[in-house]
Amino acid sequence: MNLTAENHCIPLSDGNRIPLLGLGTYGDPRTTPKGTALDCVKLAIDVGYRHFDGALVYYNEHEVGQAIREKIADGTVRRDDIFYCGKLWNTFHPPELVRPTLERTLKTLKLDYVDLYIIELPMAFKPGDEFYPKDQDGKYIYHHTDLCATWEALEACKDAGLVKSLGVSNFNRRQLELLLNKPGLKHKPVSNQVECNPYFTQPKLLEFCRQHDIVIVGYCPIGSSRDASWYVDIKETRTLQGWRDILKQRLSAKYNKSSAQVALRFNVQRGVVVIPKSFSPERIKHNFQIFDFSLTEEEMRAIEALNKNIRFVELLMWSDHPEYPFHDEY
């Protein structure tokens, strides 16, 4: 695969294209200073990023949208140079809420369309103003999940021109098959955003998705910046240090690259889109510098062999949800 900093897009099954490297924009709204996402997205566009992964529940889509619009206004990019992924949150699964929620994202971004819109998780929560609804005992309040009905509402959004491509996130094989086998399916999911890094390479899910022309978008490709409730701390330490040490010993010196750059290159070289999140200007630049070297087939196999099926993001607080995706093998 001939990848360059200027052109590293791969095709989606609906005829659109997605850049293999993007910038994740999640930041804890309780601790991230205002304006951080705005400044970092503008810098990233100047560096060469064209793919941005955001969400309504990140509370910063207004800043991301402003950054994109400002870089369009100053002539750095055109709108069709930018690939923006937005997400449908758990409290908006009922079909009648899908389009208004997408329109809310578009209004916040002040853009006419998003390039990709995905179901963030296959688990529905009680609809309402609270993103994380709980009862008086502090227990999450779930809602009946009809993924096919939610998907049909998304298909209508695509037909209306509000979004170019449709995908999902954190779906297992069974949940993907539910959509793929839906009677009257108009638009199949083009992507599945899941955790993917050298200790969690997703071989079985990746092969299944390849068979169905579904692109894997890998989050946490070099670690996790989520708040601690989303993962187990001891596991994060073991995972990060383990494969980073191995990559540093084996490959970093050879290519004069960091273990993070090697890990990103590994995934993009096998067709997995990566969306490392960073609000550090130096790391944003650093993570983009993966197109001036290439791993050999032997090195790719060696990194694949590091797989330990260790997750950062287990979402154990929702493991009793009927559609919790991680009970299945893949």
Automatic annotation (TrEMBL):
Pfam families associated with the record: Aldo_ket_red (PF00248)
A GO molecular-function descriptor: Delta4-3-oxosteroid 5beta-reductase activity
Active site (catalytic residues): 58 (proton donor)
One Gene Ontology biological process: bile acid biosynthetic process
Site (Lowers pKa of active site Tyr): residue numbering on this chain: 87
Domain of life: Eukaryota
Residues covered by the NADP-dependent oxidoreductase domain: 21-307
InterPro entries documented for this protein: AKR, AKR1D1, Aldo/ket_reductase_CS, NAD(P)_OxRdtase_dom_sf, NADP_OxRdtase_dom
Stored SUPFAM superfamilies: NAD(P)-linked oxidoreductase
Residue sites binding substrate per the record: 143
Family: Belongs to the aldo/keto reductase family.
Protein name per UniProt: NADP-dependent oxidoreductase domain-containing protein
Source organism per UniProt: Sparus aurata
Organism classification: Eukaryota, Metazoa, Chordata, Craniata, Vertebrata
